[in-house]
Amino acid sequence: MTMKPVKDKLRYYKISLLVGSIALISEGLLMMWKGDIDFPVFLGLLFGLISMTVSFWHYIGASKETRDERMLRVGTYATTLAWFSTIIIIDFAAIIAHYTHIEYNGVQAMGFALSVGIASMLAWLGYYSTKGDLGLPDYA
Amino acid sequence: MAMDTEKYALWTGIALTIISSMLLMAWATWITFVPFAIGVGLVTWALYRYMGCQAGDERVRQITVYALTNSWLATFFFVAMYVLFGVIGILEDLTPMQVLAMTMTTMLLIFSAWFAYFWRRGDVA
User: Fold this and answer.
1) How many CB atoms sit inside 10 A of residue A138's CB?
2) pTM for this structure?
3) Of A6, A117, B62, B115, which residue is most buried, by most CB within 10 angstroms?
């Protein structure tokens, strides 16, 4: 029995993470566009969620087979900053939408939160993956 | 001493944000927006300091980073559950403000639970 090299496995996890993230962003945008949810949208969301979360821990090197300290740091930093970005963007979106009287419903708001959360994670992950040094932040 | 300031700021911020989010769901006005913004500001400041390892404690930084990562992932499972509510027609009855406040409350509650869990646990590796 031949074992697949870690590099190959990482490629699969990366593809799975990207496919899941794209599915989630698409579902979020679809919710924003239609302003309505049906069962296929929920199934698409569930597929994206499972695909993303299953591969996420492997991709960032948190599992035994893909253990990688640098990627673990990249992944946790990226999601941490995605958490900050999401909460701040949602905060501003709520305030702006309230005071500018933009017409939208609860489903569109949920789609917005979903798309922003995933897109910010991908953006931070891309940024930290290409950045060379990942020492402690200078703001300490 | 510095750690205490951040700890109080974090828990005060979380409490303030959650309470004002509840109020925002029913009554969206600047009186509820102000404590909400202050709460988010306090949480962000405290976590920023923790992540920057202000007190020179690597463990606290690890706790913060892992709690936020787990919270971020778990939030999407809750979002999926809310979408399921939408399929059965509950989400459409909610206003956008209620949905956004509900999402933020979910994020903060999950983070608080993970943070408290990791804080009590000795090893974060």
Assistant:
1) 6
2) 0.81
3) A117
